Amino acid sequence: MSPPIRVALLGYGLAGAVFHAPLIAAVEGLELAAIVTRDQKRRTRARRDHPNAALLDSPDEVWEGAGDPDLVVVAAT
Known about the structure:
Blueprint: E1 5-10, H1 14-26, E2 30-36, H2 40-49, E3 54-56, H3 59-63, E4 71-74
Parallel strand pairs: 1-2, 1-4, 2-3
């Protein structure tokens, strides 16, 4: 079996928390590796919902190689 595709999710508001993150977590072969949000309430929710995902403060951390994602999903405005 090949390693999972590591996904970084930018944004954990309604779209990120309700649609994208659960779908990423449910798809075999995908791993929600990182979530980018600065909002403390959203970080708390993300930590509870996806304890294995790294929590990042800025998209810059993704581009700088934090977790080396294979795929980035943008759920932010």
